[in-house]
Amino acid sequence: MPDRLDLLQGTLDLLILKALSLGPLHGYGVLLRIEQISSQRLEIQQGSLYPALYRLEHQGLIASEWGESDNKRKAKYYRLTPAGRRQLRTEADKWSQMAGLMASILNTTPEQI
Amino acid sequence: MIFARLRSWWRATRHAARAESDMDRELHAHIEARADDLMARGMAPEEAHRRAEFEFGPLTQTMEACRDARAANLGPSLLQDLGFGLRVLRKNPGFAVLAVVTLALGIGATTAVFSLVNSVLLRALPYRNPGRLVYLFEPVPHITGVPLEAWGPFNADFYDWQSQSRSFSHLAVFTSDSTNLAVSGAAIRVTSSRVTGEFFQTLGVPPELGRAINPDDDRPGSDNVAVISHALWQSQFGADPHVLGRQVLLNAEPGRIIGVMPPGFCFPHGAESFETAEAGGKATDVWVPLALTPKEKAMREEGPGYAIGLLKPGVAPASAQAEIAAITANIDKLHPPFFQGATSVIRPFDVEITGGSRRALLTFLAAVLLVLLIASSNVASLVLARMHGRAREFSLRAALGASRGRLIRQLSTESLCLAGAGGLLGVLAAWLTIRLLVHFHAANIPRLDETTIDARVLLFALGTSLATVFLCGLFPAWPASRCDIHEVMKRSASRTVRGTASNLHRGLMIGQVALTFVLLAGSGLLIRSFLNLQAVDKGFRPAATVSVDIRLDARYNTPVRQVAFFRQVIDGTSRLPGVEAAAAANFLPLGGGQSISAIEVEGYPFDDKTFFEQRDVSPAYFAAEGIPIFEGRAFTDADAGSSQPVIIISRSFARRYFPGQRALGKKIHTSGHRVVVGVVGDVRQYSLETAPLMQFYLPLWQNGGWAANIAARTTVSPDRLASDMRGLVRNLDPAVAVGAVRTGSELVAAATAERRFETFLLTSFAGIGLFLSLVGLYALLTYSVEQRTAEIGVRMALGAQPGSILRQVLAQGTTLALGGIVLGFAGAWLAARSIASLLFEVKPTDAPTFFAVAALFCAVALAACYFPARRATRVDPIVSLRAE
Question: Does A72 touch chain B (CB under 8 A)?
């Protein structure tokens, strides 16, 4: 099993938005999708997913409706709203800028100064 | 986004039940799905379910977090807090009642005083442009002893100001008089004002009916017109809509009513001007044109009126003053020599009208804020005490997952319940207090009677209540919410000696005592001042005297006619049943009014810098007012007309000018060469608080006068005498009215009313503060004894004597009280300077007052400590050891 990373503070919302941008999912599906696209390297406390989903819905970034899951169970499906899509874009931009900046700072060698 | 949030909150709240079941289903669906996955990997169903639930984590906490995320909790949990808070308070009614009453006292007193400040200092004056209205005075600085407010401009100077200045939109002069008004039948006395043409334009208040006086009316020989007040319209004309054009008699001359002013307009009003304060502080009811003749307009030694002006927009009072001062300097040489050197002073309306009471009101506000602080800290220490008792409850709730924020919210909601109830009761108390204060108060603070509870006052009360929530709820809640579960569990498991009250609690108590001491010391100083004032030698005996004032009209235009009329009144009054002496005088002691002059005493050079109080009195005046005669005689009916001019002087006058000699027979020059025929006692004429100038008396029968006060020493009731005198005057001349009836005691009461009011108010605050801090002290000790029951039980079981237990608890209480007193002593020592101007013949740092207050406080604090201490000695060791 690859090393598992704890979630950085504040990144769960962004991950959920990303997961949902690939298509509507129910809560458990979101969890699986994140684990899948992170190649099982991110561990998410399952219970903590729902407050985040509810918060995003409260903010109008995602919307939900009840549907039927693959194995014929009733499940609540979440999808991205246009506002959520915009939010994902700006957050992703910020994130990659930050990541690039951090990477370049951390890769600085004495010679470069 | 905002809408989405609101919608989400609304859905969560509105469809709470469905949202709950949805959430439940969703979370369980998750766990089911996970279990399915695990089973698909070959796990046994039971094991799979257990594993799925474990991985999910604590379900109820997740649900709570979800509710929080949707803000669904806000409504229900607030309600829950509220309900729980109320239940908690109901379970402990003693605490709740004590806290609510304490808060009600604090908030009520603060709100009441704030509403006074609001109506007197903050609320705009009821004129169109109150901010631009100013008074204009023309003082002559070398004439000392005359208050600024008495210096209305000289007539010609005013008209020069009016024609030359550019700073004013309007300028006007008004007088404060009283008038005999006859609508039908006998005349009544009303307060009146003669005004120049721009008076109503200056104030900018349009009449309710008809028209106001305009510049065309302000001419000699034009129709006699009159504008009346709303109150007079109602009382004398039955609010008749056809009152316009009605003919009335004003000082026995016909006049026509042209307008009615709206309710509340009564300028010049009461203490607003020097002169009406003398006339008894009444609201003006009738306005007539001043209509000066050209000859009067040209006078530079007469100025019967007071000037007001409306500044042009954007003109500052200071620049207007500079302009007026320049004009005045130019015309100064035209004044008679005595009045040369005249200057001018411009004062904004609000400063002039309420400036004098600003200091006293702000002192009250400061004092009442101390009361509020005491009340808040009292409730805070009550809450703290309970918090200790509830430590186990809180640690249990914390253990069950309540967050710190949640606990603080719970506690704040409880304080909110308290403060809400306290605030409501407080506003009610404030309303009652205001009624009492307005009723109690005798018109010395202008606009006080307009005090009501308006939106601003309610807002203030709300703010105050919220501030107390913060002070007495959140503040103690903070340490309590941080309760350490282990600590509490450990403590409750064992039966060791518990800490007594916390440091915070003790600190609050000491602060409270200190604040109370400051209040007590302040009120002690005021009480001493008041007693000093009561003990002042007034120089006359006000008890059993009754006075009325009578003003004659133009038919009595010679001294002979005036004297003849007043002699008839005096003779008639003297014959009334129960009258021991009756006399007339232009001004009565403490009746308001002052006339001062410089005179020449034979043997001394004329000194125009030394002023004397002058009275014109009839023969029995000294007997009627109870003024002692030390040498010579009073006036007689023979001192009249063209007989030898005589004068009576006060004792300080005699001592200053004729030391060691007989004053009788000395010569004094004032309106003729006069011979001293008597020396009488000094009388506090104008104010009880200041020693009078040297005084002299002239015979009224020699000088005459338009108006006089009739004073009678009597054995019958004032009302009976007054109605007898009214009948007497009506028989003599029905067009002459008898003015306000005042007893000597009423005059003295009015002269001390302001001080009594201040003393009463500050003493009430101190009383409330004392009560609160004694309750606080009592509660703290009771609580501490309760907490230490086990310890005391152990000690008693080991043989401690009740005496030593008693001493120990008493010592605990008195230490706190003494700490507070020492702190308060220092605070009061510093704070007392700020009320120095409110004191009378007592130093702000009067040691006897301070020590008396300290002793009083110690005594009552000891009493407050005694009961809890007694309770401690009654602890039964067996019961107390089982108590836990």
Answer: no
Same domain, B298 and B418: no
Pairwise CB contact (< 8 Å): B34 & A46: yes
This prediction has a pTM of: 0.70
What residue ranges do the domains of chain A occupy? Answer: 11-108
Same domain membership, residue B646 and residue B507: no
Distance CA B446, CA B123 (A): 12
Question: Based on the number of CB atoms within 10 Å of its own CB, is B41 exposed (0-12), middle (13-18) or buried (19 or more)?
Answer: exposed
Residue B484 has pLDDT above 60, yes or no: no
Query: How many other β-carbons are positioned within 10 Å of the β-carbon of residue B215?
Result: 12
**What does the pLDDT average to over B347-363?**
79
Q: How far apart are CA B487 and CA B557, in angstroms?
A: 96
State whether residue A76 sits within 8 Å of chain B by CB.
Answer: yes
Continuous H helices in B238-348? 274-278, 294-297, 317-331
| Residue B504 token pair | 């915070």
Of the partner residues B33, B59, B69, the one whose CB lies closest to the CB of residue A54: B69
CB atoms within 10 A of CB B637: 13
d(CA B505, CA B488): 19
A60 with B1: CB under 8 angstroms? yes
Tell me: the pLDDT tens digits for B630-677? 999 999 988 887 788 999 999 999 999 999 888 899 899 887 889 999
Which structural domain range is residue B755 located in?
A: 358-535+751-882
Q: What distance in Å separates the CA atoms of residue B473 and residue B478, rounded to the nearest whole number? A: 9
**Regions of chain A short of the pLDDT cut 70:** 1-10
Instruction: Find the residue in B nearest to A69 (Cα).
Output: B33
Per-residue pLDDT tens for B496-529?
Answer: 444 445 677 788 888 888 999 999 999 999 999 9
Strand partners, B584: B710
Alpha helices in B269-316 (DSSP H): 274-278, 294-297
β-strands B225-228, B253-260: how paired?
parallel
Residue B419 lies in a domain: yes
Pick the CATH number of A11-108 from 1.10.10.10, 3.40.50.150, 3.90.1570.10, 3.40.50.970: 1.10.10.10
Secondary structure (3-state) at A42: strand
Residue B711 Cα distances to B50, B69, B547, B619, angstroms: 105, 83, 4, 12
Q: Please say which residue of B674, B705, B734 terminates a domain.
A: B734
In this prediction, does ipTM exceed 0.90?
Answer: no
Whether residue B545 lies inside any domain: the answer is: no
B797's enclosing H/E stretch is: helix B789-797
Q: What is the DSSP string of B166-190?
A: SSEEEEEEE--EEEEEESSSS-EEE
What the block records as the tokens of B369 is 């804020």
Residues belonging to chain B: 884
Q: What share of chain A is helix, strand, coil (3-state, %, to 5)?
A: 55, 15, 30
Kindly state the tokens that stand for B697: 């008396």
Tell me, yes or no, if B28 comes closer than 8 A to chain A by beta carbon. Answer: no
CA atoms within 13 A on the CB side of B415: 30
Shortest Cα–Cα distance, B42 to chain A (Å): 17
Query: How many whole angstroms separate alpha carbon B283 and alpha carbon B271?
Result: 9
How many cross-chain Cβ pairs, A to B, lie less than 8 Å apart? 81
Q: Do A73 and B29 touch (CB under 8 A)?
A: yes
Domain boundary among B684, B699, B734: B734
pLDDT in tens, B380-434: 877 777 776 676 677 777 777 666 777 777 777 777 888 888 889 999 988 888 8
How far apart, in whole angstroms, are the C-alpha atoms of residue B838 and residue B759? 9
B257: pLDDT strictly greater than 90: yes
